[in-house]
Every structure is written in structure tokens, then in C-alpha cells.
Automatic annotation (TrEMBL):
Residues 6-169 form the DUF4158 domain. This is DDE transposase. It comes from Arthrobacter liuii. Residues 580-966 form the Tn3 transposase DDE domain. It comes from the Bacteria. Coiled coil: none annotated. Keywords: DNA recombination, DNA-binding, Transposition.
Length: 988
């Protein structure tokens, strides 16, 4: 029988936890009259109380009373008071083992329960096996087993018995997965998989190591190398359809496990496990390479267009003096001609006298040069890069299996034509070539007097292909990020079943059209209310005129009279090294227990080594430099520990532990109740090896970079972060943080800045049950929309941009709900759908309908914004917390000049996750010591206005030593339950 331990000590304690809080006791253990009748049949206080305790425990959590069962004294006292007996009688119960067993049998018969036996154990293994085929998370498996026994009214055995059954089921599930995959592999397939572990000729890397390398740069050479990788994967000719026989979670787990090991480790696996692991790695890597090839094409096209634009700008600047001279000359020419006309003189003589014919001819030649297409549109300059495209596009188009929606069929036909021309070597574009996809801006370049220009036609088609892949109008077989749009959503039958049963996980559970009608009626009502207030000039701090709207700026959020208290409390923080801070926070929360081994599922036994690896991520020092700065640690040990324990999911679980602790701390209530949040992006430059992986956004300059998009609660805790491309709009990732964080926060209202909203997001936020409140820059330029043309809104007329197309919303109402339900249920990630919906040129019905619904919700929000200064103040305060957290993050992430320099996207993600975990730890530590500082000032007779406490912030770092050698104390000199002494304000 498998002996693998699936649960941590904390998890083992929560599975069959017996409640102790008074409210929980009342909810779980209130006795009925039938219960009291049965209890009265016992003789003596000890038997009555003991019988009642057994009855309570079998009801919840469903366990039989054993000799070693620890019953909370709160439960005993609560039940004793209901029976009007002494709680001391509990000590006399069960002196005869037979009495306890007889009571247990009688209670089970009364409750209709049975004792746990070997048959139940076997059924448990069978049931959990089905769940283990989908996930290997020990807590989920044990909770599922517990719930099954409760549903079957079987008295629960000890946690160790349930855990042993789940471990056995998981072992069987793993073997079944290996067998399922290996059954599809022939002897030849296995030989090819074994070949992946061999070293490449004249190289130090193995075949699988080379195949899994990320592209070095966004250029033709890197593209061709990556196409070679995809071609090599496909040449294995494995039964790729077998990947669908295993649940996606388990296949991904297999691939990740294999990726964390060396080729030598994989070679030591027993055959079934080795081939299953290698197949999983192959299937996942092939999809990854496909997506990376498409991303490379996207970046190359974008870079070539930016280069052309820069050349045009440089040419324009260089021609400024020439244009100025021409204008002066033409001004003199004009004056001379008008003077000649006025005096009846010969105009040609006037030209000769004023500027001369040679100068005029030279000026005309310069004018013709400056009005060539290259000066009018930078796209003309991409012709200089046709050679770059030709280096990779034939192989690029040949290796992708493209399919198109009806809207992009003409573009796909053009791509197929280019493929054919590449194959045959023909150079001219035929007269009947597809051209409807060519936008007006390209037409002067594509269509010439000599026919269709091959270079511009091909570049235009490739640029439009980039856009169509983004939007989903064209999709790729074998890709994860660029699949058919419909494949991402809930199956139509599943959606219909959920809707018809009234269980849609949305704000409208049955999807009734009446809900939409109610929103439109509300909008009509609110428009009239605000219009009337504006007409009477009764909107607080808002003035609506014919020129638009003007809103009085808010006063400083932190008043000057709060600064003395802020300074006084900040000066009381103990000085501390970052290593000591992490150890202290871990002693409070045990967050390191969530960093479990990829192989065994157990937490790390070397807490200091684990914290060293986390710190290397968080302060951006890297493992090599950290090994040099930390005594007794080597790079090899750090690298092995990182590979085994540090992953996205372990970082997320540890972050949730810190956020939950912060949420439960009494002082955090000074800042909010954890129901509101804000999000913002923070750019970090991509330098060194990461420079080629970074993206460019003109908003941040011409240097490549990465963006860390972070969600911060009203209690200052950063509960979610994600590493994204700087070219993506912030609004793409707003929903991810709200839907996929693992903390106990129940966010109801969310704030962003201008970059964090789109009409699509307004619609989805409302459907998913969130109040969305972005701070919109230049709100006077933002339009209101009405349900229908309404001539009665005279005062608001300057702000109205049109009417909402309710017909389009009604026509696609079911599609909107299906999309929202797919996001809510986790069928597809919100950011992926947001990217596709917002990508040009997606003008399909769903995108348009969602935009119209978003205009409705945005108008309702703007009406609230105009009417409610409290909302404006609350949003500003929320965003200020996020911006202040970014300042802390910048201070912590100081090594390597604050640049992300890791080539691997995985390592870059770990940097972002480590930074967020570190800032969350600092926020929690500061919160604890803020509470102690305030308590100290109060107890010493200080008169503190309670209203000022909300202006204190846990984001300071001046007292934290972030630099130097990173040493860990062998044992903490701070005893459990004790804290560091505060500094006196007079002695900072």
C-alpha cells in the first residue's frame, strides 16, 4: 500500500476540524427534542454528556469518538450548558471502553450511519481514483473522500486512513495515466523518445534541451531555428491525439515534472513513467513552440513597421530646414507675382528677378521628393525590409496549419496564394489574386501602374495575418493561444443545460432577456435624474456646459494634520534585515509550507535554503549572485531547490497565506474591509539576455521591457500579480486578478486608471458580479450613450455620443452570456478572451454586442461619477494605494539596475512572483508593528484621533536593510508570541 503523505500538518488538522467558535457551535450542534429524548435515557451526568459529545461528533465532522480524539473544551462546555450538567463530568466518561462503543453503535443506528470498514476503504479508492485522474492535489482528494463518506453516511475514520486510501488511489491513477499513454506508443515511438535524451552532435545540450529552448531574438535567424524545432517535434510522428486521453491538468503536471529534471534523471525512470513523461513534454513543448513562432512573427512585423516609422520621422526632421527655405522662396515668389499682376508687368520676368528659374526648378524637385509616398506614409519604407521577410516567411507559412472564419477567408486565400508562389518560384501576383483584405492605407503601395506589387502585397498579407491571429479570425492547429474562438468556450450543450437550470454563475442566473430590459430602464431613469440635477447646477463639484464637463479636482487624500502621527509612528519601527523579516513573517504564517516538492508533494526541509531562493527572485539578485552573497549556499543547491519547490502555483499559495493573514489582522480594518481593490501595471526594463524577449511600447519609450500587473486590496495587500507584455492594454488583465487569486478576499468593487478600462471589460465586469470604477482621464471626452434618441436630455446633450444598439445586444445575448460563463467557470482565461475581443480587426457580432453592453454599463458608471463625489474620492484613494505599493516594489527590486535580465519567460515570472511575495511580507510585517506602535503610544497616554489611523501606511521600507550579505539566523532570538522592541520616536 502506498505510504505517500498527501497533506501538510496544517491541512491534516483542517480536514476533520471540530469547531470551537460559539456561532459555529450553535449552527452545528443545536439539539432537537428527539435528540434530548434519546439523551435523557442515559443515567448519570458523565454518560449523558459523553453520549451527547459522541452524537455531536458523528453529526459533524462525522467522526467516531476514539480514545485519542481531542475534543475542544468549548464544545464540551457548550453541550454541558445545554444539558444543565457540569462540564467536569466529561473526565469521568468512557472509563469502560464497552460503554463508549455501545453508545457509538446506538448513535449510528439513530443517525442511520454505518461504521467504516474494508469495503468502504475499497470504494473510497475507486471513487478517489476518478478524481485523481484529473488532479493530484492531496487536499482536494482527501476532501473529496471525506465528502463521499459523509454523503453515504459512513462514520469517518482517522485522517491517516483517508489519506492512505487517497495515496493508493493516486498511485493507481498515475500508473493508469502512464499505461494509457504508453498503449498508444509503438516500439519505434519509444526509440524516438529515448533519442531525445541523447546529446546533440558537437553540442553540450541534449536533443530535448535544444528543442525546449526559447527563441533568443525576434529576427529571421531565431525564427528559422524555432521552425526547425517545430519540424523536429513533428518528425517524431507521435500519436499526438493520445494527449486528449489524459486530463489536461495531469498531462501538464507530467510535462512540468519532466522539465524540472535532467536528462540523466529521466533516463532512470522505469519505462512506462519515462515514456509517458517524455510524451507529455513533447506534446506541451510542440504547442509552446507553435505559439512562440506566431509571437515571433508578431514581434518581427511590429519591429519592421516601427523601424520604418522611425526612419520617416528622422527624414521629416532632416527636411525641416529644406522646407523652411522652400517656404521663404515661395513666399518671395508669390509677392513678386502679385506685384507684377498689380502693375501689369511680365510675370516671367518677375520670377527671373525674384528667385531665378534655376532656383525654382530646384525647389520643385525638392517638393516632388518630399511628397513621395515615403514622406506621406511610413509604410512605404518597409520595402527596405522585404529581404528580411523572405528569409523566414516561406518556412513560416509552410509550417503552420491555418484555418479562417468567414470574415478572414479572403486573407487566408491570399496566404495560400503566397505559399503557392513560394513553392513554384513565381514572382508576379496574378490579376485575380484576393485583394479585399487590403486596407485603403495599403492600396497606393500595393496597386501600381505595372500591376500588384509583390513585396507590398506580401507584407500587407503578413501584417493582416498577424492581426487576424490575434483576434481569432484565423487560428492554428496545434496551438494553445491561437485556437478557434469557439473552442475556448463552454460547449453549447453544457451552456444550455446550465442556463435552463437557472445556475449560470453570473449576475443573471437564468439569462433572462428581462434582465437586460431592466438595465436599460435603469439607464433611462438615471439619465433623467442626472440631467435634471445638471440643469439645476446641483451636481457636487461638477459643471456641465455646452463645451463639455468640468470636475473640481479633489483635495490631497492624506491631510497635513495627519503627517505628525505618520512620522511619529514610522520612527518607532525596529530596524531589521530583510532575511530576519522573512523568517519572522514565516514564523507567524508558515507560508513556506506551501512550497512543496514537485515529486513528493512535501514542504521543503531546508527553510533557509528555500527562503534564499525566494529572496533571490524578490530582490532581483539571481541565484548566482545570491550564492556569492549568502554564506554556506552554492548555486547548484539553490538551482535544485528552485526546480523542485518554486513554481507558479506554490508562489500563489504562499502569497494567499500572507494576504489572508493580513486580511485577518485587526489593524488592517483601519484601511478597509477587503472588498475593494485596485490594479495597475509597473514596467521594468528588459536588459542583457532578456532584451530580445522584451516588447516595446511607445508609451514607455523605445527600450524593450516587461510589465508586472498587480492587484492590491484596500488593506494594502498585493493579492495577485502577472508578468505581461508592455504592448498589451492593462484592461486585458483586470479580470484575471479578480477571478484567479487564491486568497480569502471577497472583492466586490475594483478601480483602475484610464488604461485599465474598455467597453468590453465594463460589460464582463458587471455580468461577473463586480462593480467597476475606473478613474478616466479627460472624462469630458468620454461620451454617454442612451437607450434611444432622447431629445429631453438637453443639459447632458454635449456629453451624449449616440444611442445604444439594443438590437445587436439582444441578437447576441446568449453568446455574451456563454462567453461570460466560460470565463467564470475557468473554461478559458479572461485575459485570453479580452485580447481576442479587443484585437483589430475583430468586428464580429459578439464583439460589437459586448461593446454596446459595455457602453450601457459605462454610462451608468459615469452618471454615478458625476453625481457622487464620495465615489471619486474612494477611487482616487484606492489607486493611490496601488501606486504607493509600486514605489515599494521598485525599491525592493533594486539589483541589476532594476532590470529583468532572465532569458526564460518562466524565470521572468518567478522574478515577478518573488517580488510580489516579498512586498506582501513587508506589508504584513509593517502592519503588525504599526499596530504595536499605536498601542504603545495609546498606553503611554498619547491622545490619538482614531480617524487618523487610516492614513498610516504599511508600505514604508526605510527601516529595512535590503542590501549587503544575506545571512540567516540559526535560530530566531524572537520567541513565539513575542516581538521586537520598538524604537523611541526621539531616537530614530
Amino acid at each position: 500500500m502506498a505510504l505517500r503523505s498527501l497533506l501538510t500538518t496544517a491541512e491534516r488538522g483542517q480536514i476533520l476540524a471540530i469547531p470551537a467558535a460559539t456561532a459555529d457551535l450553535a449552527a452545528r450542534y443545536t439539539l432537537s427534542e428527539a435528540d434530548m429524548s434519546l439523551i435523557r435515557q442515559r443515567r448519570g451526568e458523565a454518560n449523558s454528556l459523553g453520549f451527547t459529545v459522541q452524537l455531536a461528533l458523528l453529526r459533524h465532522p462525522g467522526v467516531a469518538l476514539a480514545e485519542d480524539t481531542e475534543v475542544p473544551p468549548e464544545l464540551i462546555s457548550w453541550l454541558a450548558s445545554r444539558l444543565a450538567v457540569s462540564a467536569q463530568a466529561w473526565a469521568d466518561y468512557g472509563q469502560r471502553e464497552e460503554t463508549r462503543q455501545e453508545h457509538g453503535r446506538e448513535i449510528r443506528a439513530y443517525l442511520g450511519m454505518s461504521a467504516f470498514g474494508i469495503a468502504d476503504f475499497r470504494q473510497l479508492v475507486e471513487h478517489v481514483g476518478a478524481v485523481a485522474a484529473q488532479t493530484d492535489k492531496g487536499l482536494l482528494l482527501v476532501e473529496g473522500a471525506r465528502d463521499l463518506l459523509r454523503a453515504r453516511k459512513v462514520a469517518l475514520p482517522g485522517v491517516s486512513v483517508i489519506e492512505r486510501a487517497c495515496a493508493q488511489a493516486l498511485t493507481r491513477a498515475n500508473r493508469n495515466i502512464y499505461a494509457t499513454l504508453c498503449e498508444q506508443l509503438s516500439v519505434e515511438h519509444c526509440k524516438r523518445l529515448d533519442g531525445l535524451l541523447l546529446r546533440r552532435p558537437e553540442s553540450s545540450s541534449t536533443e530535448i534541451g535544444w528543442l525546449r529552448q526559447a527563441p533568443l531574438r525576434a529576427n529571421a535567424r531565431a525564427m528559422n531555428e524555432h521552425i526547425d524545432r517545430l519540424t523536429t517535434w513533428r518528425a517524431l510522428d507521435l500519436p499526438w491525439a493520445a494527449a486528449r486521453l489524459v486530463h489536461r491538468n495531469r498531462l501538464l503536471k507530467l510535462a512540468r515534472e519532466g522539465a524540472s529534471m535532467t536528462a540523466a534523471d529521466l533516463a532512470k525512470f522505469e519505462p512506462a513513467r519515462r515514456y509517458a513523461t517524455l510524451f507529455a513534454m513533447a506534446a506541451e513543448s510542440m504547442a509552446t513552440v507553435t505559439d512562440e513562432i506566431i509571437d515571433l512573427h508578431d514581434r518581427i512585423i511590429g519591429r519592421l513597421i516601427r523601424t520604418a516609422q522611425n526612419k520617416q520621422n528622422q527624414a521629416t526632421l532632416a527636411s525641416r530646414s529644406t522646407v523652411t527655405a522652400m517656404m521663404r522662396m515661395h513666399s518671395r515668389l508669390g509677392d513678386a507675382l502679385f506685384e507684377a499682376k498689380k502693375n501689369g508687368e511680365d510675370p516671367f520676368a518677375a520670377i527671373e528677378t525674384a528667385i531665378g528659374w534655376e532656383s525654382l526648378a530646384e525647389s520643385i524637385a525638392q517638393a516632388k521628393k518630399l511628397t513621395k509616398p515615403a514622406f506621406e506614409d511610413h509604410l512605404a519604407l518597409v520595402s527596405a525590409h522585404f529581404t528580411t521577410l523572405r528569409r523566414y516567411t516561406p518556412a513560416f507559412l509552410a509550417v503552420l496549419d491555418l484555418h479562417a472564419a468567414p470574415a478572414a477567408q479572403d486573407l487566408l486565400a491570399a496566404i495560400n496564394l503566397i505559399r503557392a508562389l513560394n513553392t513554384t518560384g513565381a514572382r508576379r501576383i496574378p490579376e485575380d489574386a484576393p485583394t479585399s483584405f487590403i486596407r485603403p492605407r495599403w492600396k497606393p503601395l500595393v496597386f501600381t501602374d505595372d500591376g500588384v506589387h509583390r513585396g507590398f502585397y506580401e507584407f500587407c498579407a503578413l501584417a493582416e495575418l498577424k492581426n487576424a491571429l490575434r483576434s481569432g479570425d484565423i487560428w492554428v492547429t496545434g496551438s494553445r493561444q491561437f485556437r478557434d474562438f469557439d473552442d475556448y468556450l463552454l460547449a453549447s450543450d453544457d451552456y444550455t443545460g446550465i442556463k435552463n437550470s437557472g445556475k449560470l454563475p453570473l449576475i443573471t442566473t437564468d439569462g433572462s432577456p428581462q434582465y437586460l430590459e431592466g438595465r436599460l430602464a435603469l439607464l433611462q431613469k438615471r439619465l433623467k435624474e442626472v440631467n435634471d440635477l445638471a440643469a439645476r447646477d446641483e451636481l457636487p463639484g461638477v459643471l456641465v456646459t455646452e463645451k463639455g464637463v468640468k470636475i473640481t479636482p479633489l483635495e490631497t487624500i492624506v491631510p497635513a494634520y495627519a503627517q505628525p502621527l505618520i512620522d511619529q509612528v514610522s520612527a518607532m519601527f525596529p530596524r531589521i534585515r530583510i532575511t530576519d523579516l522573512l523568517m519572522e513573517v514565516d514564523s507567524w504564517t508558515g507560508f513556506t509550507r506551501h512550497f512543496t516538492s514537485l515529486k513528493s508533494g512535501h514542504p521543503s526541509k531546508d527553510r533557509q535554503l528555500l527562503l534564499t531562493a525566494i529572496l533571490a527572485d524578490g530582490i532581483n539578485l539571481g541565484l548566482t549572485k545570491m550564492a556569492e552573497s549568502c554564506t554556506g549556499v552554492t548555486y547548484a543547491r539553490l538551482d535544485r531547490h528552485q526546480a523542485s519547490y518554486i513554481r507558479d502555483e506554490t508562489y500563489s499559495a504562499a502569497l494567499a497565506e500572507l494576504v489572508n493573514t493580513q486580511h485577518g489582522h485587526p489593524f488592517a480594518a483601519q484601511w478597509g474591509d477587503g472588498t475593494t481593490s485596485s490594479s495597475d501595471g509597473q514596467r521594468f526594463r528588459a536588459g542583457s539576455k532578456a532584451e530580445s524577449t522584451g516588447h516595446v511600447n511607445p508609451k514607455y519609450g523605445a527600450e524593450p521591457g516587461r510589465l508586472v500587473y498587480t492587484h492590491v486590496s484596500d488593506q494594502y495587500s498585493p493579492f495577485h500579480s502577472k508578468l505581461v507584455n508592455v504592448g498589451d492594454r492593462d484592461a486585458t488583465y483586470v479580470l484575471d486578478g479578480l477571478l484567479y487569486h487564491e486568497s480569502e478576499l471577497q472583492i466586490q468593487e475594483h478601480y483602475t486608471d484610464t488604461a485599465g478600462f474598455t467597453d468590453h471589460l465594463f460589460a464582463l465586469m458587471h455580468l461577473l458580479g463586480y462593480r467597476f470604477a475606473p478613474r478616466i482621464r479627460n472624462i469630458g471626452d468620454t461620451r454617454l450613450y442612451t437607450p434611444a434618441n432622447d431629445s429631453g436630455l438637453t443639459t447632458l446633450a454635449p456629453l451624449i455620443g449616440g444611442s445604444i444598439n439594443t438590437t445587436t445586444i439582444a441578437l447576441h445575448w446568449d453568446e455574451i452570456l456563454r462567453l461570460a460563463a466560460s470565463i467564470k467557470t475557468g473554461t478559458v482565461t479572461a485575459s485570453l478572451m479580452m485580447r481576442k475581443l479587443g484585437a483589430y480587426p475583430r468586428q464580429n457580432g459578439l464583439a460589437l454586442a459586448l461593446r454596446e453592453l459595455g457602453r450601457l454599463e459605462r454610462t451608468l458608471f459615469l452618471l454615478d461619477w458625476l453625481q457622487d463625489p464620495g465615489l471619486r474620492r474612494k477611487v482616487t484613494a484606492g489607486l493611490n494605494k496601488g501606486e504607493a505599493r509600486n514605489t515599494l516594489a521598485r525599491a525592493v527590486f533594486f539589483n541589476r539596475l532594476g532590470e529583468i535580465r532572465d532569458r526564460s519567460f518562466e524565470q521572468q515570472r518567478y522574478r515577478a512572483s518573488g517580488l510580489n511575495l516579498l512586498t506582501a511580507a513587508i506589508v504584513l510585517w509593517n502592519t503588525v508593528y504599526l499596530d504595536r506602535a499605536v498601542a504603545t503610544l495609546t498606553s503611554s497616554g498619547g491622545d490619538i484621533d482614531p480617524d487618523l489611523l487610516r492614513f498610516l501606511s504599511p508600505l514604508g521600507w526605510e527601516h529595512i536593510n535590503l542590501t549587503g550579505d544575506y545571512t540567516w539566523p540559526r535560530t530566531s532570538h524572537i520567541k513565539p508570541g513575542k516581538y521586537r522592541p520598538l524604537r523611541r520616536p526621539a531616537k530614530p
